Amino acid sequence: MGSKTDMAERLAPLEKLTGLEGTHLLINEVYASIQGESSHAGRPCVFVRTSVCNQRCSYCDTAYAFTEGEPLALDDVVEKALGFGIPLVEITGGEPLLQPLFPELCKRLLAAGSEVLVETGGSHDIAIVPEGVKTILDIKTPGSGEEPANHYPNLALLRPGDEVKFVLTSREDYEWARGLVQREKLTERTTVLFSPAFRRIEPADLSAWLIADRLQVRLNLQLHKFIWPPSRRGV
């Protein structure tokens, strides 16, 4: 549990969402790039990054989305996303499920013919994700500092095409995630991604662990950090 100061810093940006329910979303950025993660890695993709997050993972690389952003009308967000002419769109954050208009944004993009992904931090009920949207569900490990925030009932709500991602910071995180995957029989139900936290675990080490355990998960590297400088935004 974070300190009172920490919690106040997390909650303050949420006030920016008040009053946006019917008209606007709080958006950090909308851009086109190459999908860097999941089974869709390598595909051209439009990213709609929402602002505000209720989690503070130890390895977070998008902390600028905690507080930076501007209200954009739903129509404008859809127009920006479709304007790139790329059929794959991912809604990410921040934490997109905090946005009151998130379900409607998904529906509008689907209706326009887009293939829609959403990446969520796993602390909110994914039942609000519209049918037809593919969810990439982060399960936070102990090393993230946010494991208590996991909403584990989400695992029962996974649909065909959804994926589960674990970002690992240590061998201990790996063993924790391996145990959860085996207990929940996740590899029998969905695509499971094991991602080494950037510069916290060597990909070669994680690869060796997966091979030794014959664990049927997908090694998930952040491809964009190998293509561009790791700190570059908008890619």
CATH level 1 class label: Alpha Beta
Shape: globular
What is the H/E string? HEEEHEHEEEHEHEH
Question: What is the number of domains?
Answer: 1
Mean pLDDT: 92
Q: Which second-level CATH architecture applies? A: Alpha-Beta Barrel
Continuous helix count: 6
Number of DSSP strands? 9
Between the first and last Cα atoms, what is the distance in angstroms? Answer: 33 Å
Identify the strand order in the major beta sheet: 3-1-2-4-5-6-7-8-9
The assigned structural class equals alpha/beta
3D structure, described in words:
The chain has a single domain, classed as TIM Barrel. It is built from six helices and nine strands. A nine-stranded mixed beta sheet has the order 3-1-2-4-5-6-7-8-9. Helix 5 links the parallel strand 8 and strand 9. Helix 2 packs across helix 3. The chain is globular. The two termini are 33 Å apart.
Label this structure with key terms.
single chain; 235 residues; alpha/beta; TIM Barrel; 23% strand; globular
